[in-house]
Structures
1.
Amino acid sequence: MTPSDRFISIRNVSKSFGAFTAIEEISMDIGQGEFFSLLGASGCGKTTLLRMLAGFESPTKGEIFIDDQPMSDVPPHHRPVNMVFQSYAIFPHLNVGDNIAYGLRKHKLAAARRAEMVEEMLDLIKLPGYGNRKANELSGGQRQRIALARALILRPKVLLLDEPLGALDKQLREQMQLELRALQRQVGITFVFVTHDQEEALTLSDRIAVMSGGKVLQVDTPAGLYETPRTRAVASFIGTMNFFRGTVRRNGAAMAAIEAEGLGTIPMTTAQLTKPDGAPVQIALRPEKFSLSAKRPEAGLAVEGRLCTSAYMGERSQYYLSIPGKAEPVAVSAPNTHRLMGGHDLSEGEALWLSWSPESIVMLDTD
Amino acid sequence: MSSYIKRPNRALQVYAVLFLIVLYVPVLFIPLFSFNDSIYVRFPLQGFTLQWYGELWTREPVWNALWNSVKVGLVVSVISTVLGVMAARAITRTRMRGKGALVTFIMMPLVIPGIIFGVALLVLLSRMGVPLSLYTVGLGHLIICLPFAVATLLPRFEGFDPSMEEASADLGENGWWTFWRVTFPMVMPGIVASLLLTFTISFDEFIMAFFLTGTDPTLPMYIWGQLRFPKEFPSVLAMAALILFVSFALVFLAQWVGRKGLEDQA
């Protein structure tokens, strides 16, 4: 690990409010210039962790380092971080320019230099000439940009964002996601982004920490989280996932397989499977890793199932098939590039073959 | 058929009008008789005169009493509003035990009879050997005005997003600058409303002043003193009419400023 990989270092941090534990023993590192997301359902502790980075809450235990400096004794107004609040917190009594320049008072700049910096920021957030607008004349998207500009003008080492896109409607949110990502690349500042929207986290982030119940379940790249989730909780939080219980079957040193409910015996390499014979395992398969066909494929793993129900979702369809030996139906996702089976729509009760490759199987921790 | 929720109710309208009449018509007799050309307050009216207002104008003690009331009112309104700001901020911004009980204690003077507070303060002050003066009147008024200041300011503090102050801290300002650059301008309408309201209350207050006044009377005390002299009565009415007018104007102004501020913030 290089020092810039530990730009923010969270060491054994816990936080309790009275009897309630909001954060439990979190340790992780965030690299310089990284777009890092804290992802989790509400109440998972992600906002508390962000507020500890900002200095609005102090850890009950543990220490947070930013750029190698311990932060416990540094109050919010002396930390090298700035925050974009969920409500944006645009000062209603100041115009746009004064809002953006708010943090510059101590810099004792000449009026001309100050105005120039504000204009630069307004250009950066694509609101040139908005300096004299009143705060209450702004739309949600504009407020969000101004909150960004107000924080970025101070050139913080870290920018903290607390669900900044949550209040925007879907279209504007998607546009702002792209802009936010581009902006982060442009300014090169480390972003720590809190969200409960898994799609948003996947789109924006270099790395994501999935949180639940005050703990970090997994820290990984978006692709890593999606393709190789470590636990069932992470797998089900991000996207749709099919879970199968199974048992390890070993026959000598070279051969290993999993006997999985509904899927039969799946041969595995010994590298994939390290557990002893007879050990219970939990495996998972994403819906799009299955293929559907009317006839049994000539090679490979396949089982026959019946279509329970399907959902047409535009570019793809989601099918739910019941297979013998498994209680819950299996979700299968197929693109609608050519509608399946020579164009005829699948009808409920139809018999179909499900096939998959062993590499697409995800082994989960059985805790 | 409209729902009963929006249907106008004739009986309630009549009741509302009667209510306002009973409330304000007696008060309207005061300005009415202050223009009456007779020292007796009785019908029929004798004719229009400004004589009583003229007499008022030339009477030195009236001006002294007025000035006393203004002095006490200004000091009391400023102090109670400052204390009110601190209390409202503490109540809305800090996590503390027994907050509900604290608010109840702050509001208590609203329901404790003024005569009890007046007697209690008089006993205490005379035991301590503090001479009665405008300062002791001010102290009494402060107790009465503080709940009004808190009640006026509390909604302002409750209505504004605590992340505003956090944003200021996050942008590098310490507590002092955050207060002057964010908190104060945002609660300003509440502060103005509180100043106007507490000034009016102090200016009109009688019971506390009755117990706690030394040799310098406030205006209500002066009026009380004049009631013993029948021939002074019309000019007392003239003065009462003026006080009534100024009080109404100040309270309306306070309400208007308070409401306008809330609208701007929304």
2.
Amino acid sequence: MSLLEVEGLSVTFPTEDGQVHAVRDVSFHVEPGEVLGVVGESGSGKSVSLMAVPRLLPNSASVTGSIRFDGTELVGAGAETLRGLRGSEIAMIFQDPMSSMNPVHTVGRQIAEARRAHASVSKDEAWRDAVAALALVDIPQPETRAKQYPHEFSGGMRQRAMIAMAMVNRPRLIIADEPTTALDVTVQAQVLEVLDQARVESGASLVLVSHDLGVVAGTADRVQVMYGGTIVETGPTEEVFDRPRMPYTVGLLSSLPAVDQIGERLHPIPGAPPSLVSLPSGCTFAPRCPLVEEACREAEPALVAVGTDHHSRCRRWEVLAEGSTTDLFARSSGASGATGSTMGVSA
Amino acid sequence: MTAPASDATTTSDGVRDGALLQVRDLTTTFPVRSNGVFRRTVGAVQAVTGVSLDVDAGETLGIVGESGCGKSTTGRSILQLIRPDSGSVVYDGRELVGLSAKEMRPLRRELAMVFQDPFGSLDPRLPVAELIAEPLRIHQVYAAESDLRARVDELLGLVGLKSEHRNRYSHEFSGGQRQRIGIARALAANPRLIVLDEPVSALDVSVQAGVVNLLEDLQERLGLSYLFIAHDLSVVRHISDRVAVMYLGKVVELGDAAQVYDNPRHPYTRALLSAVPLPDPSAERRRRKSRVVLSGEIPSPADPPSGCRFRTRCPKAQQRCADEVPLLRPSDAANRHTFACHFPDGDADSAA
């Protein structure tokens, strides 16, 4: 049985401009011990779909569908059930460690508090667990460091302390939302290594939400690509990166500067992501897609199997399977003029 | 104009004599003040220490490094937006260090800047046309309003926006479009050199690629020189002719982009390159095993380590690194690739 099973999840927020459909009919699963990478650009719904799992959403959000964690339904579950899971069975790691910690308590006290919130252990035991958790994430002199305040920690150490806090209750699922985005690359490498080590040691599953395709490529077993509030491609990491079957994924990959293509032009995706208030009819990527046909604008395509455990939400995925995908957007950006005027104001 | 190095003589500090911009030994410090009533100066943060570099006409010099390495302060000190403590910045034969604000003003037409945050750097109360016209008004470039208007439309077209957009406000645009407005503003007074400080860092990758292409087009069409400051190593490699790697206020390696990336001599450059995750799962899995993961973090620039500033995190550090500051020295006979390390990577004596 999957550890986490999400089916038909939708999340909407009321705003002044109307209902924002942040997540639309999203289904996915996380197996025990697995690393799932969730990628997408700003506004793709990648964070909201995961924050919905422990229901860390504003009260105004309306959540429908089903989220089963280890067989327990979480949509509609009582506050008590969720409180029991959050921080114990399901741990969260956020982008900004500075605002996730209380500045007036020592780091050790905060981790011990997290321990005591879910386990009936003595204060001394909880403190020892906190120190052990800091040691697990390679914080030097954990006994001394536990007595320090968050501001005495550097950015990378704070993020490691957050991982320690997440791990202290031996969670079975870790949801890390852009955990290294605020960090420098050499520190990012340290934190990713520590996260991986902690995960392997505890046997927990990890959902890694990131805009950085490189971070996901090196960490995830499976990956799902989100666009316009829904999953547009999902599959084993190597499958999706090496044989993308959704034009959006192809576009994301080809807009990155590649080391072996120095001096060549980059291939941006023309246009801008859709507004989640008024989504285009049909495929949400159709307005920017070089393969678009009339039928694409009529109905939103379903996720179809394009390989082993590999699914794409593209009617024309076979075109991508037939030939090389690398110049898909090169052709389209060439056609839209040499001045680079590929971005109209979304009216 | 991208290969002007041949006729310019390279001096011992690696700076070409004929280059459009020549920066020598630039040092900028910020005072550290006490919290008391008198806010006495109790120390100094050495943000930039003895930086020498050059940028020639039509060329892009990339500056990479992590937060706190002084790359942004270097850019601002060159433009005299922050006054350097010492050193020399020669632009087109004129010394900029020590010029008064009034003396700098005519030169600001030729030296522009693009900032990271396209949200914070555009006045939300001005329509796009006014945002772009502002530098032109300040420099009194056009006497007639119609000329000004025509120039604004031209600039909008140059950066891939339409003239219908002229009366809209910055909040009506996406991040990428806002950065295009920032670029149009920088281009307004016909600059020759633009300092770009993390110009694409705030943008999503698909949008970032469009802005990078635009910058390359503009460079080719207008013969611009860029000082491109960024932490993203792949973007810097893509856009730069030459690259300077900074660590804790100092340039640790400088050379042609291919030399620095393919044959890094400084252990920090090597570690930085190996830490960048590649969007290629199989390559990433291989690299993870050989990755140089640095221990520790960047020390405080208020109290930098003695000798080599990188030695506290360097896997190769020895006693000599604490005692003796490594000077930039050439890697090749042409003096175009320099690095500052006692025990560099990638040569015979380091293996011994």
